[in-house]
Specification:
The protein is an alpha+beta fold. The protein has helices at 20-31, 77-90, 113-124, 178-195, 211-229, 300-316, and strands at residues 13-19, 38-48, 51-61, 67-68, 73-74, 95-102, 132-141, 146-154, 160-162, 168-171, 234-237, 244-252, 255-262, 273-280, 283-291. Bound molecules: zinc ion (ZN).
């Protein structure tokens, strides 16, 4: 029985089973890549009373014409659709049940807002059969460490949930038609290499992802976001430290409060915070740091509110 959407989600017990061979395949894939990768998950979802069992058996790779970078991934949808039609000829019990993608290259440990909106749309797509969409997010890949999270999105429900680690079972086994998927995946990768010389398919030890490349991409993202949300934002560079920052003016009780949003120079392990500053009359009135992750934009408005309160206090004295 498929997941019954009338049962409240809190009353259901979700478990995820995933083949060890598929986790190995994902890992192999990521060790050879320093950009976001992903795939369309295949398997089935079975409900038995209150327990819902999500079985991940395999995946369809992102295809020869995937569009991906260190901060984004747009799979080749036509390819994935066609591949699924082929597989259905062999196995009419297989379903598309979600997708996986990686943030191993940018260190973001959570789904981005874009990811969340995308998955909420996917699960509600008319052509998507199951009532649950499972999203696997790989957060870490190296020879010694591999980590991932599993999230569930539901049809017609405005929420998603993370599956607890102890509810994810790695099981032995291989999908019977994996040969088709693996050979096509290799051909996709070869094609990507031929059409984009930057791509590599030879196994090599994971190298440290250049923090500089990632910060460049984040800079583009932040520049767009800030300019969309605050008027007269100017991007500047600190002459002595070289740090990039954005500055704009907030007026409060006829006074000008300058807000600055500063990027770290590099995205190194211990130094990946944004510095927010509120400056009044050339003096720092309030300062805070914000982690460089998907939540960062939500911290700006509360920071401004707090700065305005500090300005009130200052003006009273
Ligand atoms: Zn993402």
């Amino acid at each position: 029985m498929m997941f019954n959407r009338r049962d409240p989600i809190e009353d259901l017990d979700f478990t995820v089973q995933i083949y060890e061979s598929e986790l190995e395949r994902i890992k192999r894939n990521l060790l050879n890549s320093d950009i976001e990768e992903g795939g369309k998950l295949l398997g089935n979802i079975i409900q038995n009373g209150n327990s819902v069992s999500i079985n991940i058996e395999s995946y369809i790779d992102s295809g020869p014409q995937v569009d991906n970078s260190a901060v984004h991934l747009h799979p080749d949808g036509h390819y994935q659709e066609a591949m699924f039609r082929v597989l259905e000829r062999f196995d009419d019990g297989i379903d598309h049940i979600g997708s996986w993608h990686s943030h191993h290259c940018n260190g973001l440990p959570q789904l981005s807002t874009g990811d969340i909106n995308g998955y909420a749309k996917d699960v509600n797509n008319y052509n998507y059969r199951p009532n649950i969409f499972v999203a696997i997010l790989v957060t870490k890949t190296s020879y010694s460490a591999f980590d991932y999270k599993a999230f569930l999105f539901f049809k017609n429900v405005r929420m998603y949930k993370e599956v607890e680690k102890e509810k994810i079972n790695v099981v032995h086994g291989t999908y019977p038609y994996n040969e088709i998927l693996l050979s096509l995946e290799n051909i996709s990768l070869k094609h990507r290499k031929l059409t984009n010389p930057r791509e590599t398919i030879q196994p090599k030890p994971i190298r440290e992802v250049s923090g500089e490349d990632v910060i460049k991409e984040i800079r583009i993202e932040d520049n767009k976001w800030l300019k969309d949300h605050y008027e007269f934002v100017k991007s500047k560079q600190d002459k002595s430290s070289g740090e990039i920052y954005w500055e704009w003016q907030e007026s409060h009780r006829g006074k000008a409060l300058h807000i600055s949003y500063k990027h770290p120079l590099e995205l190194r392990k211990y130094r990946k915070n944004i510095t927010l500053q509120a400056i009044y009359n050339g003096e720092i009135l309030h300062e805070d740091t914000v982690s460089l992750n998907d939540e960062r934009y939500t911290k700006i408005a509360p920071f401004i509110d707090k700065s305005k309160k500090k300005l009130d206090k200052r003006l009273k004295n």
